[in-house]
Amino acid sequence: GAVVSQHPSWVICKSGTSVKIECRSLDFQATTMFWYRQFPKQSLMLMATSNEGSKATYEQGVEKDKFLINHASLTLSTLTVTSAHPEDSSFYICSATQGTSGGAQYFGPGTRLTVL
Amino acid sequence: GIQVEQSPPDLILQEGANSTLRCNFSDSVNNLQWFHQNPWGQLINLFYIPSGTKQNGRLSATTVATERYSLLYISSSQTTDSGVYFCAVVGNTPLVFGKGTRLSVIA
Predict the structure, then answer these.
(1) DSSP assignment, residue B78?
(2) Of B43, B94, B98, the CB nearest to A107
(3) Each residue's pLDDT tens digit, A49-100
(4) Strand segments (E) across chain A
(5) Chain A CB within 8 Å of residue B100 CB
(6) In whole angstroms, what is the distance from residue B42 CA to residue B31 CA?
(7) Beta strand B10-14 with B101-106: parallel, antiparallel or unpaired?
(8) CA distance B16 to chain A (A)
(9) Minimal Cα–Cα distance from B85 to chain A, Å?
(10) How far is CA B44 from the centre of its chain?
(11) Which residues from chain A sit within 8 angstroms of residue B95, using beta carbons?
């Protein structure tokens, strides 16, 4: 149980285009979903926390107009990277928790974004 | 915010050896998780262990919350154990990750 999927697993796009990444909890309802970013050989950095039906909470330094997060249902959250640039190239990982914010988090397989 | 320090940063083991990875944290936590990130980037849940001791096969973990540390034990290591091991904690902020321990198990 507690499976989280992400789609796509990798994407290559041209500079200036927008890319949408989906995160789904497959066998549980996720009250809270999180989006992380990971650069090569570095740790995961939290970008934002999203609760179903409300606006996402962004971490300091993360541009909310650039990284649009929608959590429309208890099983789906999306991250849209708008007007992507090469510096946005990274590994994006989502996670979901079904209980309280202190409960166990389950991670998706990640999406590798390359912006040319 | 809460600080998470992992040691050692890098570890090379001969197959069959045992190892202990350490995670220190700077404040009280409500949640502590250990993850293994495989070469493809997937984070695999190993333990949800805010306190106490748990075992799963060749892996076990102990968290001493009052002393603000957790240990991950790997016994009889295998080449498939290679990857990065992360400790992550929840205090009064969302999950904060340490920098990880990069483990290489050689045959």
Answers:
(1) -
(2) B43
(3) 998 888 899 999 999 999 999 988 889 999 999 999 999 999 999 999 876 5
(4) 4-7, 10-13, 19-25, 32-38, 44-51, 57-58, 67-73, 76-81, 90-97, 106-107, 111-115
(5) yes
(6) 21
(7) parallel
(8) 26
(9) 10
(10) 11
(11) 34, 46, 95, 105
